[in-house]
Amino acid sequence: MSRWSRSSSLDRAVDRRTEADLDEAWQRGVVLSIDGEGRIAAADGQALIAPTQGRRGANDIYLGVFDGRDWFASPESSLDGETIGWREAPADEYDPLAAAVFLARWNRQNPACERCGGPTAPDQGGIRRVCGSCGALSFARMDPCVIVAITDPDDRLLLARNFQWPPHRVSIIAGFIEAGESVEQACHREAAEEVGVELAELSYVSSQPWPMPRSLMLGFEARAVDSRIRVDGDEILEGAFYTRTDLAAAVSSGGIVLPGGASIARHLIDRWISAG
Ligand SMILES: [Zn+2]
């Protein structure tokens, strides 16, 4: 089971978000700073978590209770000094940091009402925004994506290289879910579009929030009907099915580089490796 399959270590405190609740939480809370790119102020490779000072700002985001303390995030347009990305932080802080990056970016990117275009302001500590003109509420959302570990009938794993990645970097197939499409349909479509593979079996494994940009990754395992691949040459430049032995050799020689350990892509790859 991945860490994302267990209950969150962040209590979002949804019933303690009146202005009075938030002011009280601020008095005893801690705060981290996030810039417009979702980078977190840091010291010595760790997110800088400081006691709150002064009054709570209108844009300060209440994340909830983590490790017995009330956590806030202060969005800043830019940060001087050391910063880290959320997945460079210690894994036990992923839950509050992922929420912080999501909410800071979502609040920054939604200053106007979707219904009337009027100015919006954070409400309930920044988990939603309210329009000052028409009163419409908007809620922080994530964009669902599928990510699929595809094996062929010989149980070899398909790894492919996206055109945006450096040489040797490979991963499994992923893509956004289109409007009006089911999650499973997105898996079939992405496999067909990107690598020309038809899926025979498909099963859900687990999910992971991915705040950059604002994705919810839905992880699947699938079996291809055969071993043929036809990369699209556009989004995917190359791809191949690997045995576990071939994969280990290619990784140790530097011939391929796998996704980082914080990703669901790596979780699905490791799951296939350990199933052999
Ligand atoms: Zn409005």
TrEMBL record:
Entries under PROSITE patterns matching the protein: NUDIX, NUDIX_BOX
GO biological process, one term: NADP+ catabolic process
Catalytic activity: a 5'-end NAD(+)-phospho-ribonucleoside in mRNA + H2O = a 5'-end phospho-adenosine-phospho-ribonucleoside in mRNA + beta-nicotinamide D-ribonucleotide + 2 H(+)
EC main group: hydrolase
EC number, UniProt record: 3.6.1.22
Nudix hydrolase domain location: 140-264
Keyword Transferase attached: no
Keyword entries, A-Z: Hydrolase, Magnesium, Metal-binding, NAD
Keyword check for Translocase: no
Sequence intervals crossing the membrane: none
MF terms in GO: metal ion binding; NADH pyrophosphatase activity
Cofactor(s) essential for the protein: Zn(2+); Mg(2+)
PANTHER family (alphabetical): NAD-CAPPED RNA HYDROLASE NUDT12, NUDIX HYDROLASE, NUDC SUBFAMILY
Family: Belongs to the Nudix hydrolase family. NudC subfamily.
Protein name: NAD(+) diphosphatase
